[in-house]
């Protein structure tokens, strides 16, 4: 409905009340997008990682505004770091990996829910090491960094275990993503296990001093998830905002999957990322946008590792880990039944 029609309604409201009421309903969606005062404001904790491209495209293409949302993206180096502010009551929705998500769900006694599985893969998770390290056995006695509590922790642990390297023979150092390239170039660490684009940036900075040792393929599958507090989701306002966020983000994922130039332009403009660094992660992304059998299988594997490692003392009831309303509202077939606690 055009603005002209709305104007006519205003002029002839005395004689056309029914007509105006119908017009008001028809223009409601476009009015939400046009009037910043009517948009529902939410704060989303984001990261400069290409597997967040669904959110970026939803923002860049105006899908959030089309859904009546005014989304502010706050950038953190990792989900582990973002959770520190989230615990303090800041933000509405947070993006993070699988380990930090499940660990914080346990820590918060279930007062947290995953609302969307935006991406998963294993090939964009990488280990970069100095050139004197050629094999898993060469890691013995070396200092290896990761963001402790993130996917990197699970990755390095599984890599060492499957290659017969005792974890107590490797020094694990906790560093945030943005510090890893310089630390490796300067020799402060001997390598790191993390995700792209940190590996690509390290290659650009360090050159031939370093190389890729492995990807996470065959070891773990990392996830990029969106979550929110259970209490917020149980309010009418929070539930409504989450439903809109999921719809818009799923539209953003559809664009991101088909339009690499748009994703590359966004990363260059907002994060100074080269096209090649973006490509190095983009090509491996899988966007399930569902709670499927693979999701539950992977999280049962993660839960088993957490129990074995002493991070968790109980099984995970994944039916209480997820909030399915948003995905179900788009397509009920995208939500499978959760397994028994695992």
Summarize the structure.
The chain is an alpha/beta fold and 342 residues long. The chain has helices at 3-11, 17-34, 53-60, 63-66, 79-87, 98-107, 151-162, 180-185, 198-206, 230-233, 236-258, 260-271, 275-282, 293-309, 325-330, and strands at 40-46, 69-75, 93-96, 112-121, 125-130, 143-146, 171-174, 191-195, 210-215, 222-229. The relative contact order is 0.16.
Describe this structure in words.
The chain is α/β, with parallel strands linked by helices and 342 residues long. It has 3 domains: 1-38, no CATH class; 39-120 and 221-334, Periplasmic binding protein-like II (D-Maltodextrin-Binding Protein, domain 2), CATH 3.40.190.10; 125-215, D-Maltodextrin-Binding Protein, domain 2. It is built from 15 helices and 10 strands. It has helices spanning 3-11, 17-34, 53-60, 63-66, 79-87, 98-107, 151-162, 180-185, 198-206, 230-233, 236-258, 260-271, 275-282, 293-309, 325-330, and strands at residues 40-46, 69-75, 93-96, 112-121, 125-130, 143-146, 171-174, 191-195, 210-215, 222-229. A 5-stranded mixed β-sheet has the order 2-1-3-10-4, with helices on both faces. A 5-stranded mixed β-sheet has the order 7-6-8-5-9. Helix 3 (53-60) crosses helix 11 and helix 12 packs across helix 13 (275-282). The chain is globular and about 60 Å long. The protein starts with a helix and ends in a 12-residue tail after the last helix. Residues 1-36 have low confidence and may be disordered.
């Amino acid at each position: 409905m055009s603005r002209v029609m709305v104007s006519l309604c205003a002029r002839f409201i005395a004689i056309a009340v029914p007509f105006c009421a119908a017009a008001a309903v028809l223009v409601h969606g476009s009015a939400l997008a046009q009037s910043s005062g009517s948009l529902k404001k939410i704060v989303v904790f984001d990261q400069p990682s290409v597997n967040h491209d669904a959110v970026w495209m939803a923002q860049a293409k105006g899908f959030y505004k089309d859904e009546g949302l005014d989304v502010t993206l706050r950038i953190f180096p990792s989900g582990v770091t973002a959770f520190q502010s989230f615990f303090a009551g800041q933000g509405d929705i947070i993006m993070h990996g699988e380990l930090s998500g499940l660990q914080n769900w346990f820590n918060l006694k279930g007062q947290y829910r995953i609302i969307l599985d935006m991406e998963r893969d294993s090939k964009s998770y990488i280990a970069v090491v100095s050139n004197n390290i050629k094999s898993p056995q060469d890691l013995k006695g070396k200092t290896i960094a990761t963001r402790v509590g993130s996917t990197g922790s699970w990755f390095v642990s599984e890599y060492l275990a499957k290659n017969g390297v005792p974890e107590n023979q490797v020094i694990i150092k906790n560093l945030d993503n943005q510090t890893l390239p310089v630390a490796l170039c300067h020799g402060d660490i001997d390598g790191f296990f993390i995700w792209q684009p940190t590996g690509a940036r390290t290659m650009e900075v360090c050159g031939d001093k370093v190389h890729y040792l492995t990807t996470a393929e065959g070891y773990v599958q990392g996830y990029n998830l969106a979550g929110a507090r259970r209490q917020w989701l149980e309010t009418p306002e929070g539930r409504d905002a989450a439903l809109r966020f999921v719809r818009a983000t799923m539209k953003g994922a559809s664009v991101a999957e088909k339009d690499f130039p748009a994703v590359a332009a966004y990363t260059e403009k907002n994060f100074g990322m080269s096209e090649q660094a973006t490509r190095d992660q983009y090509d491996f992304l899988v966007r399930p946008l569902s709670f499927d059998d693979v999701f539950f299988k992977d999280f049962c594997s993660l839960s088993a590792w957490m129990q074995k490692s002493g991070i968790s003392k109980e099984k995970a009831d994944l039916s209480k880990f997820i909030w399915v309303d948003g995905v179900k509202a788009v397509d009920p077939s995208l939500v499978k039944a959760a397994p028994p606690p695992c």
